[in-house]
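For practice. Any example?
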Amino acid sequence: MAFRSRRRRHTLQRLFSAFPSGAPGTGLLILRAVVGVTLVAQGTISLSSRGHQTVVAFGMALLLLMTGVSLLVGFLTPILSPLAGLECLGISLSWFPLPALGWFESKWASAETIAMCVAICFLGPGAFSLDARLFGWREIVIPPAPQNPKG
């Protein structure tokens, strides 16, 4: 069982290229925050709509809300950022109906959000994310060998 969990961690480790800190990490945090707030706002607007709401529209609104929150905190970023891009593409091309008008009615705004999702997917979550805490590189400190008092 321990081997299986170690293998899963190794697979997740390969999803992340690096966790940059400093200015690049701050830039990734801002990028994730803009996309996350946009998705959360669109999901909230759609959930609070009092119009005719289908099961598909309700599910898309929940999915927008969940992926937005996950991108805000930086959780499973390489998996959820392409999903968020596909959600935006589907909404802008009217594959998935939403009951409320919002950000993705504009094709240009939708294209920008999709481009930011792709950039986040390729760049990774950055050091200021939950992914960095859970799956980041670990430093192993090996203490020096004890001195033999006899010799």
